């Protein structure tokens, strides 16, 4: 790289000295939407070489004319770079500059083609016309009134965002969050941030307590203010919920809050926090419950109010239902089952028969067991019994993929629980509840290990009085992503009838995947066949060369060579499932590598870069949040069908259904050539590759391994060291979550 004209080597190596430069952003080399960290190339007047600028920017676009203050620094690899401390945008002054600026993606509805037409018509006056006489855009060929309205809105939004940006910058905060803050509060943005900066942490996804705290400090909120302490306490409980807890014992909460609130100048005192907790509990901003268990000392448990009430209410609803079993003529049920088995020429195991009989009368029950023990087989029989009893039945599962699988396995219609309960995106609530219950007499929820406290509560609430609920799930899988461990609590309470199937059936016994899964579950090292040219087993092991970089190489070879030789299609049959996103054999790196391998760049495949990640037509992607407007849900897999740079939209094909995303919403999706095991819950794939390396040691655990392996329908290949595999099998700490659902179920209702 050559040195910019104005800089000598002597200057580059000297102590940083601030200077101001101006130029037009030529292109973005890297931009993180999260942190705003940007590396860009700048064209400067009277300078032939491009200048590299590095710093935090919100909304930076090619074509923008910027005045930048900062200092030069020599990067050991890339040479001299201008490190930006502060910047402001000025209007572009040349025709090319204006055209580039307008067509850069800044304004929805204006892409490069439209920008060229507008600038060709209005010349240097273009920006003034857009600012003051926008209706004149009608003079430009191909721009209709509807589009002008769109451009007008987008232009005004840009202006408002800039105002928020200037305000935040003046308080020393990175400008990255300006767009998010503006979207949330619109014209009230500055007022909200000034009156209660901690509100940002509650309302805006991506802004945590720490960012809000930084803004608060810049606005002059004292580090020991009650305001700050209260926000810190709530934040510590939210963090605990992200780890799956429904509450925290007070001493642990205080410890976490002290860590959170300690600054260079301030060390919070335990008593002060305890005092605020007490006051918050008096105001019911949090709920404290005093418990004394096993003759231990009295302990105070701290809940966010919604968590407390939901847990309490769920326990009460279940207890009430359990106290009203339906009266059944059991000899008649048994006679039906005998006739059913004889006519179908099948024999249910005693455990399976017990499950069917329990389903005849129990208002709520759990059917659990590992792979191949006949959960689906038994569920089928229960459906037949319920049909014979004249019941109307609904089937549901927590995710779209799991619901789809349930429908395939049973041949019956199955919905997501959200759809069954008629989720309304306008109110963010369910239309089905205790006042408007489901019209069915019997409901089956599969993959019940994925039910978190809140979804379980909504489901039970919507089941009509007298109707029955069957929860089917594998208790040894990972617990729900959301808080609670509902299925485990229901089982441990010993109040809810539970049938645990343990016998692995003959068909399933032929699968080494099923056998290995049961071995892992029992804490035994699984039987994995070392990889060879002619494998016999469907559960294989590849040492992966023991080092992560060799693992990446091994995975690539498996996908391009070994797996196709066994008759599978690498483009759609294979899923790499990783314990975590970081590291060479984590999802982030593997996605980049596998994208290059399975969907390499090509002139006929448009692509865009978002947060440092390339999204290209033909890429496999995964939806990362529940988007009720687009009706796509966390974990849904799709393929990028098209990218429209003019309209700034990207279309994804979700198994025959096209879903369109604005560029602004692209953080909802990410590449899915490799996904995390957590995200794969409830899904199955023909071939699964599981990279297990000591690099992932924090995440390695028995139920992570078990969950990953049981996602494979036809072939599983574990890649990695025996040490990592042993560590995973021997680690059993996933289910330690603070919940009290099971104790509450034991209390009289
Ligand atoms: N009583 C039975 N008689 C004969 N075959 C059975 C019986 N129960 C289950 N099977 C067979 O065993 C195999 C595994 O059963 P099923 O698919 O129902 O198990 P599962 O617990 O749902 O497993 P997974 O969780 O892996 O889906 C199937 O081929 C099924 O037909």
Tell me about this structure.
The structure is a single chain. The protein contains 27 helices and 29 strands. By secondary structure, the chain is of the alpha/beta class. The strands form seven sheets. A six-stranded parallel beta sheet has the order 11-10-14-15-9-16, with helices on both faces. Helix 13 (305-322) crosses helix 19 (453-462) and helix 14 crosses helix 15 (350-361). The model is unreliable at 1-14 (pLDDT under 50). Residues 346-349, 352, 369, 371-377, 505, 507-508 line the site of adenosine-5'-triphosphate (ATP).
Q: Which keywords apply here?
A:
alpha/beta, six-stranded parallel sheet, 29 strands, binds adenosine-5'-triphosphate, RuvA_2-like, DNA binding, 5'-3' DNA helicase activity, helicase, ATP-binding
């Amino acid at each position: 790289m050559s040195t910019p004209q104005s800089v000598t080597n002597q200057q580059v190596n000297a102590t940083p000295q601030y200077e101001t430069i101006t130029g037009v952003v030529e292109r973005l080399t890297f931009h993180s939407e999260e942190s705003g960290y940007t590396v860009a190339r700048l064209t400067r007047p009277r300078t032939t070489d491009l200048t590299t600028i590095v710093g935090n920017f919100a909304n930076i676009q090619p074509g923008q004319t910027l005045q930048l203050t900062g200092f030069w620094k020599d990067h050991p690899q890339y040479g001299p770079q201008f490190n930006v401390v502060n910047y402001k945008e000025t209007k572009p002054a040349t025709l090319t500059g204006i055209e580039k600026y307008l067509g850069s993606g800044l304004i929805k509805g204006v892409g490069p083609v439209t920008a060229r037409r507008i600038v060709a018509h209005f010349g240097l006056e273009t920006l003034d016309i857009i600012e003051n006489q926008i209706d004149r855009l009608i003079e430009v060929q191909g721009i209709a009134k509807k589009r002008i309205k769109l451009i007008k809105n987008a232009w005004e939004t840009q202006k408002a965002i800039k105002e928020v940006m200037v305000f935040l910058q003046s308080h020393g905060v990175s400008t990255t969050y300006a767009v998010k803050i503006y979207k949330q509060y619109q014209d009230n943005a500055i007022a909200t941030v000034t009156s209660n900066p901690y509100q940002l942490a509650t309302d805006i996804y991506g802004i945590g307590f720490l960012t809000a705290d930084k803004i608060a400090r810049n606005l002059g909120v004292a580090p020991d203010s009650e305001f700050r302490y209260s926000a810190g306490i709530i934040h510590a409980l939210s963090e605990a919920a992200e780890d799956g807890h429904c509450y925290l014992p007070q001493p642990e909460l205080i410890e976490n809050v002290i860590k959170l609130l300690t600054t260079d100048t301030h060390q919070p005192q335990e008593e002060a926090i305890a005092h605020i907790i007490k006051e918050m509990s008096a105001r019911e901003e949090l709920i404290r419950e005093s418990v004394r268990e096993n003759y231990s000392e009295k302990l105070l448990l701290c809940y966010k109010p919604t968590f407390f009430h939901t847990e309490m209410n769920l326990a009460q609803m279940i207890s009430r239902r359990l106290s009203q079993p339906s009266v059944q003529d059991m000899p008649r049920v048994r006679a039906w089952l005998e006739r059913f088995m004889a006519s179908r020429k099948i024999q249910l195991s005693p455990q399976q028969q017990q499950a069917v009989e329990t389903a005849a009368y129990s208002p709520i029950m759990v059917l659990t067991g590992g792979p191949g023990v006949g959960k689906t087989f038994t569920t089928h029989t229960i459906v037949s019994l319920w049909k014979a009893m004249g019941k109307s039945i609904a089937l549901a599962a927590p995710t779209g993929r799991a619901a789809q699988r349930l429908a395939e396995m049973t041949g019956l219609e199955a919905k997501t629980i959200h759809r069954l309960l008629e989720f309304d995106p306008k109110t963010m609530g369910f239309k089905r509840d205790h006042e408007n219950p489901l019209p069915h007499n019997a409901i089956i929820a599969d993959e019940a290990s994925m039910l978190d406290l809140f979804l379980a509560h909504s489901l039970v609430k919507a089941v009509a009085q007298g109707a029955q609920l069957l929860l089917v799930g594998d208790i040894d899988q990972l617990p729900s992503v959301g808080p609670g461990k509902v299925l485990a609590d229901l089982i441990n309470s010993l109040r809810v009838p539970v049938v645990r199937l343990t016998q692995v059936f003959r068909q399933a016994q032929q699968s080494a995947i099923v056998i290995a899964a049961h071995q892992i579950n029992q804490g035994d090292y699984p039987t994995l066949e070392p990889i060879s040219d002619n494998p016999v087993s469907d559960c294989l092991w590849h040492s992966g060369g023991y080092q992560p970089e060799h693992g990446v190489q091994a995975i690539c070879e498996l996908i391009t060579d070994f797996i196709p030789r066994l008759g599978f299609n690498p483009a759609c049959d294979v899923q790499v499932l990783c314990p975590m996103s970081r590291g060479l054999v984590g999802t982030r790196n593997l996605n980049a590598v596998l994208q290059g391998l399975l969907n390499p760049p090509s002139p006929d495949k448009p692509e865009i870069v978002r947060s440092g990640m390339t999204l290209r037509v033909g890429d496999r992607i995964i939806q990362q949040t529940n988007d009720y407007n687009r009706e796509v849900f966390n974990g849904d897999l799709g393929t990028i069908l098209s990218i429209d740079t003019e309209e700034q939209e990207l279309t994804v094909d979700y198994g025959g259904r096209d879903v369109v995303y604005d560029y602004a919403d692209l953080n909802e999706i990410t590449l899915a050539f490799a996904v995390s095991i957590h995200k794969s819950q409830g899904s199955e794939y023909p071939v699964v590759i599981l990279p297990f390396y000591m690099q992932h040691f924090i995440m390695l655990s028995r139920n992570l391994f078990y969950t990953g392996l049981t996602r494979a329908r036809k072939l599983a290949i574990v890649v990695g060291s025996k040490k990592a595999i042993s560590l995973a099998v021997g680690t059993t700490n996933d289910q330690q979550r603070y919940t009290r659902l099971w104790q509450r179920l034991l209390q009289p209702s």
